[in-house]
């Protein structure tokens, strides 16, 4: 139900909701170390209550049209998530993010899912700019930003402490006209 196919491999994009708490916890448990290398999500989702609370926070955001959360299912199993952490309709700016459990990486699931969501953000919701904030050390995520046609705009040097180490953040973004131009070139099908 409410599923969007991401391709011939059976991958699907669906809203990720409070009733998925057990599935979300299992997904994070399978990827706790991999996912936690650069982002604190596994520290936020540690048990069923915290999984439910995280999902509820996104249900509240969605209720306020201030963010959203989708899951990626592969072979009927929840394997990752795509989020709009920031969703500012008056400013036309949003910030996207993602995770995958390691067994689901390397198949283009996040790129494929994000393309669906960015198309919706730009064309249905009138967003002008989608941002992607990523640790300078997070090569796979930088690869996603590149495949989505984003431009690296700058670096916030040592702007946050993660697990006791000061890390820097790259700011990547794609603008609505750039997104449309890439679509016209057929770039949205590229790997
Ligand atoms: C960031 C993260 C989601 C990237 O995962 P990923 O699997 O590399 O990204 P995608 O799902 O878009 O897959 C891209 C890979 O699949 C390949 N691929 C296969 N089929 C593809 C297709 N149809 N479309 C696009 N890429 C495809 C690409 O070539 C690429 O592989 P490569 O990097 O070896 O060239 C993952 O590393 C992760 O979850 N990390 C932990 C959490 C995290 O850091 N989140 C980001 C915070 S900013």
UniProtKB/TrEMBL annotation:
Alphabetical list of InterPro entries matching this protein: Acyl_CoA_acyltransferase (IPR016181), GNAT_dom (IPR000182), Ribosomal_N-acetyltransferase (IPR051908)
Protein name, UniProt field: N-acetyltransferase
A Pfam family: Acetyltransf_3
GO MF annotation, one: protein N-terminal-serine acetyltransferase activity
Gene3D superfamilies recorded: 3.40.630.30
N-acetyltransferase domain location: 11-178
Gene Ontology CC terms, in alphabetical order: cytoplasm
UniProt source species: Streptomyces filipinensis
